[in-house]
Amino acid sequence: MLYPLYIDPGTGSMLFSIVIGAAATLYFLARALIIKMKVFFSGGRAAALAGIAHPCVIYSEGRQYWNLFKPVLDEFEKRRTELLFLTSAEDDPVFETGYLFIKAEFIGEGNKAFAHLNMLQAEVVLMTTPGLHVYQLKRSKMVKHYAHVLHAPSDATMYRLFGIDYFDSILLSGDYQAKDIRTLEKLRDLPEKQLVTVGCPYLDVYAEKMKQIPKDEKHPFTVLVAPSWGASALLSRYGAKLLDPLVKTGWHIIIRPNPQSKKSESAMLEALAEKYKDARNLVWDYERENIYSLVKADIMISDFSGIIYDYTFLCDKPVMYVKQGMDMSVYDADDLGENAVDELWQFKTLGEIGIELKEEFFETIGDVIKNASDNADLKAARKKAKETAWQHQGEAGKRIADFMIAKGDQ
Fold this sequence. Notes:
This protein is of the alpha/beta class and 410 residues long. It folds into 3 domains: 1-50; 52-200 and 394-409, Rossmann fold, CATH 3.40.50.2000; 212-389, 3-Layer(aba) Sandwich (Rossmann fold), CATH 3.40.50. The protein is 41% helix and 14% strand. It has helices spanning 9-42, 66-78, 110-117, 178-187, 201-211, 234-237, 240-248, 259-264, 266-275, 291-296, 307-315, 338-342, 345-353, 365-370, 376-389, 396-409, and strands spanning 54-60, 83-87, 102-106, 122-127, 143-149, 169-172, 194-197, 222-225, 252-255, 282-284, 299-302, 319-321, 354-356. A 7-stranded parallel sheet has the order 3-2-1-4-5-6-7. Helix 2 (66-78) packs across helix 5 and helix 2 (66-78) packs across helix 16. The chain is globular, with a radius of gyration of 24 Å. Mean pLDDT is 88; it is low at 1-10 and 38-50.
């Protein structure tokens, strides 16, 4: 009897790396031979062809990161400085911009994109994709500098294991993120990366966009439920136990699942959508940008999702959070030690800016929300958190462009 061939993920990753390594070796040998032949037949005039092809390159996993990279692209365009923008989204908004100095190229998804990136030629490459040189995405021998820009104003150690270990530099949203990165470098005997605080580009974009959204002073009281994803997240863990009493309040309820939930927990979301299909005061938000739901909401209920800080920093309104344990073993932060995890900025700050919603109070959640006062202490804590985690507000695009151009000229 014939059995289908099965390759486990670890073996698959190893085999892919071998294939890519062999392909890269052949590519560079062939390239070197071609250059030598051109140099020989041109009497040395073609020697310049051996140089780096692109001074500055950005790679984007998909259109969900458009608002993160747009301020940087705008700055390059403004300076009339060329940049290569590689994207894994065939419908990336970059193709509709009409940029003159930004060359955009769709390179496919998954292994196809990694194969392209693994043989890239550039002075500096910027990406928000973690896991460089851990799995399929390898460091190209023809790239001098890899920079990672954080895609949230939260702890840099909340990536999956080894998420940022093999970058040359990390661009931070706030100075506070540097401490734990340095600790991990020492624990793992890694060379020190260049750490530069540039701000948060997508928050800069959202702040400007929200100024253009008309205010609706007569809207119904609105509760936004915006969880993270996974077994420890709000919808996965509680589901109807939380949503039933919320719907009964009669208030307007917006549920905005984490984008990853649609990929990893579609069955759970479909079951909840079916259960509440007749609830006229409950809507689901799957829009690419979260700002329209943020503007409508009078209060947010979440867990450990980074959207808490989007809402806090952009709207300055109260947040309620349900505290539950997380499996930290898959995150870089776990290597900091048990007590250090408790001291992570985003978890410690959540207790200062938010109001804890305990499971035993779900049934009376209407009264709990009514009595949740937005006092002066909460407002002061939100202001402090914003100043700490979102530095250089409105300047991120300029600062990132400054950094990349300086690296490209070295």
